[in-house]
Amino acid sequence: MGEFSGRFSSNEARPSNREPDHPMPLYEYICRKCHNKFGEVLTIKEHESKEVHCPKCQSTELDKVIEPFFAKTARKSRGY
């Protein structure tokens, strides 16, 4: 198997839970043409400027998927 390319589809295994040196956001999309759900790991700058294509059909007709997330922080809040 090759290295993680920054892209995966819903029917592929997601990358291991190995934490990268510089974590980047995962943006998830669903294709309006073929209904493929996939994710892209992009920097914020790439997200603003890159035209994302569906890996299955190459369409650019995509909807962003908003999903809940868990934020991991360095320390616990003391509630002050």
Provide a quick synopsis of the model:
This protein has one helix and four strands. The chain has 80 residues and is mainly β.
Your description of this structure?
The protein starts with 6 loop residues before the first strand and ends in a 15-residue tail after the last strand. The radius of gyration is 15 Å and the shape is elongated. With 80 residues, it is mainly β. The chain has one helix at 44-49; strands spanning 7-9, 26-31, 37-41, 62-65. A 4-stranded antiparallel beta sheet has the order 1-3-2-4, with no helix packed on it. The chain contains 1 helix and 4 strands, in the order E-E-E-H-E. The model is unreliable at 1-5 and 11-18 (pLDDT under 50). Strand 2 (26-31) and strand 3 form a beta hairpin. It has a domain at 7-13 and 22-65: Rubrerythrin, domain 2 (Single Sheet).
CATH architecture of the domain at 7-13 and 22-65: Single Sheet
pLDDT averaged residue by residue: 76
Task: Report the total helices.
Answer: 1
Rg (CA only): 15 Å
Class per helix and strand makeup: mainly beta
Strand content: 15-25%
> Which regions have little confidence, pLDDT < 50, spanning 5+ residues?
1-5, 11-18
